[in-house]
Task: inverse folding
């Protein structure tokens, strides 16, 4: 097995950690889905199939320094930067201790001032102009900061995406526009969403580079992100990194994907699942044994169990909390 | 202290705040090199440079969205929407984003932005340079809405808005920009957001108004006092949201007769909410029905000068309504 | 010759004035229509103004460098033809005044007027209306009250008389009592002839209000009256024993009134029709028991209310009465203190009376008095003993109930009063 990570500046420890985060993301997501189907959690946005792209992208950032405007499928990003399974589970159950919103938002609406993850909303693409604003502010202050903003290929159709990219290009802002193209915006397939093959094709139109990578391969994604971060920090402006991924699950727990895509397509993409492929890579290099992998599975599963139990038992917000934080207190 | 126009007072507030706090910066279309199409930001780019006086692309949603991001980063953006009529593309960023940042993050994040926009008509602006949009935002929690009528109020309130930790919509009546003058202190002073101002005390009726209509009502009140000895109390709301209930109700309890006057069209305007508050909390102090004096429910306002004149509030209109109310 | 006056145009939204730059034509020059006439500078744009007509520049009215308001004449052209008129001036459109509200029909009053009428005891049918359509306004009511206080004076009403609320706190935004008092009826126009030496004392608002209320009561409520004798010897003895200790501990007097009220209230629970009100569509039996306690002051009668008297112990009643009566004497009762009574108690015995015929306070259904306690010889068994005897009198609304019911009520009051003694709980 050829070592593809050393050249990217990743140590053996790094890639094992990347794998661990990918696996953790998968396990948390699976548990969330089960809780929903059991009727314990009302709503969730699954990310299975995106893990490689998300973990690798986040790995290229400096947690707590670089700013993150993630979108609602970015569980892998959140967990890699420092959010915990407990944080996510608390938001699924919308408990008072939920660090993202105190139970006010749907799950996956990330927020963490300490991790520089800005609060997100449900209307898509609104985060892109905001990311450009963050980057502009950083540039105005002369700070060495990169801004990561992610979105699906559907969001790329919204006016906000265009306005943000144009602005970022004009001012050479340190923004990485990270598009996770999973070929579907809920049920609307890529060919109804855009006339070009890739969202990244548009970047040249704005005046900055766009690259397309295999989003199922964490090393490919990491490589592209690393270069984009370096460009941004050198003051060369934005990059659009488009990771081609696939969403194994429906858009959300309220979606039925059998109404718009065949099982064969899903199965075909599952063969390209980044998680087992990366495991094979690590085992091929002798960095991971089946026993170690199994132990890892058990350890992470226990962590998920504990997080779920804690979150389910945690207290709900008080009714009086409804009235707080409309304005500064 | 000197006599300044509304526009000069606003410019002064911006310049002073930008000097006082280097986190404050201005962004919008034509605000930099051109100094703003109304010249409000004239001179700022020379003093503070193009990064702090940013000429944005033509993209209102971006203007507000970028302001939100910059505020999250720790700056104090003052975004300009060139005409209030153009604010609509930014509605999502204002209502779904700015207004909700604090609430949706359970207090972890805030959004201290100011969005300034010239509004109002009577300047041959036709349907897309004359609108009043305050009522569209009034309903949204988390926003503050300010509409000063005098240069003195404008400077103090804009400073307050810039220093406010929450998003503030700051509406400037374009007809008042150069036509309204007044004493404005040269030094730093801040007026409280959320406090109305009794511009003219009186015992016979209460007139609640804001923006350019304040001046129409003051003129009508002076004439009415001379002609018939009727003394109208004129309350300039200054802040539309959060509204100063206390000042309103104190006056209502004193006079028992209320007229609400605004340039925004009648149905669903701020006057409707003020009427409801008074009916709910001071019914047994009312000696007459609450009346609202406002233009008809058509699109503000046609280009033809006669049609515009038929739409715009006038001193005579305020006078007649006040007189009839006093006699009721 | 026809002339055209050129005025300063409005160059740009919100521009109100302009400065004359350079005159491009001199007086006497020929000017063609659309030819530039003068350069004007504003803080938004600098521009040349084209002439609206062909003609000769006859007069320059604003010199170079002058700043004039939009619409000010700056030049006059003499034209050979019927030139275009000057710039059209904006004509204010005809517009109906904001729809003036329909005047109220006679007999309908605004919320403020009704409240003032209630507070001052004014019969609005007596008040002349000066509002739209002859409507009675706040001013009219206040003028009426002022004029009522000085019936000899003529002419325009003077200062407003302070309301009886001088002794009662200013009204709040909360609407007054739940039981709507009927409209006061006019006092009958009577009166003895006035003769020299007679003194006419104008009634103050309090006196006037009381007078109207009493007249209304007697005119609308069929009063019936009855009395019982009560042997309160046991109570007298007991009270003697405990009153000092009570005063030391509680800081208020333990009079007979709390004991009396306690007995009355417990009896009212058994006989609720007396804690009621005759209405057009039925007898409204009140759930809460709020006891009005008549207090005689120099200025007149005032009746503070012990609210939820059934929830107070004898000691609690004593404390409440101490507070209310104290404040009544100091003139510090609030509006809430005098509203909402469902039944009234009058300690007429304090003046030495042994029998009284009290007047019911509308809209209540009854009023009870506690007469003086007198040592009397009475028959006990077959012997004569000296006992403390107190009469209890009751006036009641005969529409609401009859003698049988009332008799039983009074027997209940009597029984309770006669049983009060050392076994009774004070607290």
Result:
């Amino acid at each position: 097995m050829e070592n593809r990570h050393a050249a990217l500046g990743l140590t053996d420890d790094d890639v094992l950690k990347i794998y661990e985060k990918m696996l953790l993301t998968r396990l948390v997501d699976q548990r969330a889905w089960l809780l929903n189907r059991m009727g314990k959690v009302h709503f969730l946005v699954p990310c299975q199939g995106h893990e490689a792209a998300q973990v690798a992208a986040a790995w290229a950032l400096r947690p707590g320094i670089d700013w993150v405007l993630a979108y609602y499928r970015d569980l892998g990003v959140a967990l890699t930067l420092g959010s915990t399974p407990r944080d996510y589970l608390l938001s699924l159950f919308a408990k008072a201790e939920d660090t993202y919103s105190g139970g006010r938002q749907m799950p996956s609406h990330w927020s963490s001032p300490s991790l520089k993850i800005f609060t997100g909303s449900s209307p898509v693409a609104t985060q892109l102009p905001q990311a450009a604003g963050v980057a502009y502010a950083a540039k105005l202050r002369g700070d060495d900061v990169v801004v990561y903003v992610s979105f699906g290929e559907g969001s790329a159709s919204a006016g906000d995406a265009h306005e943000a990219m144009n602005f970022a290009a004009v001012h050479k802002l340190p923004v990485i526009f990270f598009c996770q193209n999973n070929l579907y915006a809920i049920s609307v397939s890529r060919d109804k969403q855009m006339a070009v093959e890739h969202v990244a094709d548009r970047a040249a139109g704005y005046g900055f580079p766009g690259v397309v990578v295999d989003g199922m391969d964490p090393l490919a994604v990491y490589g592209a992100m690393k270069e984009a971060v370096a460009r941004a920090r050198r003051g060369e402006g934005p990059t659009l990194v488009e990771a081609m991924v696939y969403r194994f699950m429906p858009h959300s727990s309220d979606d039925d994907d059998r109404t718009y895509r065949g099982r064969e397509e899903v199965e075909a993409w599952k063969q390209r699942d980044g998680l087992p492929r990366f495991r094979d890579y690590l085992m091929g290099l002798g960095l991971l044994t089946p026993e170690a992998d199994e132990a890892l599975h058990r350890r992470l599963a226990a962590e998920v169990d504990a997080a779920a139990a804690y979150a389910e038992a945690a207290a709900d917000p008080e009714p009086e909390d409804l009235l707080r934080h409309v304005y500064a207190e | 202290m000197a006599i300044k126009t509304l526009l000069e007072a606003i410019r002064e507030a911006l310049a002073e705040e930008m000097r006082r706090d280097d986190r404050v910066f201005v962004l919008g279309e034509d605000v930099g090199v051109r100094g703003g199409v109304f010249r409000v930001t004239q001179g700022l780019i020379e003093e503070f440079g193009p990064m702090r006086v940013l000429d944005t692309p033509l993209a209102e949603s971006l203007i507000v969205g970028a302001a939100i991001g910059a505020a999250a980063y720790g700056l104090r953006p003052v975004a300009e929407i060139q005409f209030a009529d153009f604010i609509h593309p930014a509605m999502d960023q204002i209502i779904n984003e700015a207004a909700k940042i604090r609430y949706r993050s359970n207090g972890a994040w805030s959004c201290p932005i100011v969005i300034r926009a010239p509004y109002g008509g009577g300047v041959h602006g036709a349907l897309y340079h004359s609108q009043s949009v305050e009522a569209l935002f009034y309903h949204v929690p988390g926003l503050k809405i300010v509409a000063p009528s005098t240069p003195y109020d404008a400077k103090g309130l804009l400073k307050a808005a810039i220093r406010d930790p929450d998003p503030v919509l700051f509406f400037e009546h374009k007809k008042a920009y150069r036509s309204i003058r007044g004493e404005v202190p040269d030094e730093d002073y801040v007026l409280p957001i959320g406090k109305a101002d009794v511009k003219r005390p009186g015992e016979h009726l209460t007139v609640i108004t804001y923006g350019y209509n304040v001046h129409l009502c003051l003129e009508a009140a002076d004439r009415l006092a001379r002609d018939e000895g009727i003394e109208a109390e004129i309350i300039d709301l200054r802040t539309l949201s959060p509204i100063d209930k206390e000042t309103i109700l104190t006056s209502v309890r004193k006079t028992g007769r209320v007229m609400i006057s605004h340039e925004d069209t009648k149905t669903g305007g701020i006057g409707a909410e003020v009427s409801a508050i008074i009916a709910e909390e001071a019914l047994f102090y009312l000696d007459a029905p609450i009346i609202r004096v406002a233009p008809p429910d058509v699109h503000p306002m046609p280009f033809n000068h006669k049609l515009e004149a038929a739409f715009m509030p006038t001193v005579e209109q305020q006078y007649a309504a006040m007189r009839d109310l006093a006699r009721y | 010759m026809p002339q055209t006056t050129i005025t300063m145009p409005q160059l740009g939204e919100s521009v109100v004035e302009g400065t004359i730059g350079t005159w491009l034509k001199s007086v006497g020059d020929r000017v063609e229509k659309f030819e530039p006439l003068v350069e004007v500078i504003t803080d938004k744009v600098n521009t040349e103004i084209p002439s609206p007509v062909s003609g000769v520049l006859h007069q320059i009215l604003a010199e170079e460098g002058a700043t004039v308001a939009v619409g000010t004449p700056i030049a006059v052209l003499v034209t050979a033809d019927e030139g275009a008129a000057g710039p059209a001036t904006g004509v204010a459109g005809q517009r109906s005044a904001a729809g003036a509200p329909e005047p109220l029909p006679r007999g309908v009053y605004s919320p403020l007027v009704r409240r003032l009428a209630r507070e001052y005891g004014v019969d609005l049918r007596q008040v002349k209306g000066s509002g739209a359509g002859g409507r009675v306004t706040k001013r009219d009511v206040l003028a009426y009250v002022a004029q009522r206080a000085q019936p000899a004076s003529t002419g325009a009403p003077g200062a407003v008389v302070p309301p009886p609320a001088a002794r009662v706190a200013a009204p709040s935004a909360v609407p007054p009592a739940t039981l709507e008092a009927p409209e006061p009826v006019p006092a009958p126009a009577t009166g003895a002839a006035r003769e020299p030496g007679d003194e006419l004392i104008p009634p103050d608002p309090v006196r006037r209000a009381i007078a109207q209320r009493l007249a209304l009561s007697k005119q609308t409520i069929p009063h019936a009256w009855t009395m019982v004798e009560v042997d309160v010897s046991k109570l007298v003895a007991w009270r003697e024993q405990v009153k000092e200790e009570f005063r030391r501990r509680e800081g208020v007097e333990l009079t007979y009134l709390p004991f009396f009220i306690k007995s009355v209230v417990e009896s009212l629970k058994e006989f609720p029709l007396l804690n009621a009100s005759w209405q057009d569509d039925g007898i409204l039996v009140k759930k809460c028991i709020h006891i009005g306690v008549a207090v005689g002051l120099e200025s007149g009668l005032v009746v503070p209310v012990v609210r939820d008297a059934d929830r107070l112990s004898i000691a609690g009643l004593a404390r409440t009465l101490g507070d209310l009566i104290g404040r009544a004497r100091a003139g510090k009762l609030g509006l809430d203190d005098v509203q909402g009574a469902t039944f009234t108690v009058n300690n007429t015995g304090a003046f030495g009376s042994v029998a009284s015929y009290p007047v019911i306070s509308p809209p209540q259904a009854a009023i009870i008095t506690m007469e003086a306690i007198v040592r009397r010889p009475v028959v006990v068994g077959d012997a004569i003993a000296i006992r403390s005897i107190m009469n209890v009198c009751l006036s009641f609304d005969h529409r609401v109930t009859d003698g049988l019911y009332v008799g039983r009520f009074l027997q209940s009051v009597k029984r309770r009063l006669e049983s009060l003694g050392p076994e009774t709980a004070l607290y």
About this structure: Strands of chain A lie at 67-69, 147-152, 175-181, 184-185, 188-189, 210-214, 239-244. Chain A is about 45% helix and 10% strand.
